[in-house]
Amino acid sequence: ITGTEKFAKVIDFLRKQLHRESL
User: Fold this and answer.
1) Cα-trace Rg, the chain
2) What are the distances in angstroms from CA 23 to CA 5, 16, 17?
3) How far is CA 20 from CA 6, 13, 23, in A?
4) Coil, strand or helix at 19
5) What is the C-alpha separation between 23 and 18, in angstroms, rounded?
6) What pLDDT shows up at residue 22?
7) Would you state the pLDDT for residue 20?
8) Could you name the domain of life of the organism this protein comes from (predicted)?
């Protein structure tokens, strides 16, 4: 796995967490 893919997965995870908290 490349650094970019790992970074993208982390960002996607954080975005889901933020969306979940905002509900």
Assistant:
1) 10
2) 27, 11, 10
3) 21, 11, 6
4) helix
5) 9
6) 66
7) 81
8) Eukaryota
Report the alpha-carbon distance of residue 3 to residue 8 in Å, rounded.
Answer: 9
Say what the pLDDT of residue 23 is.
63
Three-class DSSP category at 2: coil
Q: Residue 9: is it exposed, middle or buried by C-beta count within 10 angstroms (0-12/13-18/19+)? A: exposed
Contacts of residues 6-13 at CB distance under 8 Å and 24 or more positions apart, as own/partner, are none
| Amino acid symbol at 9 | K
| Tens digits of residue pLDDT in 1-23 | 689 999 999 999 999 999 887 66
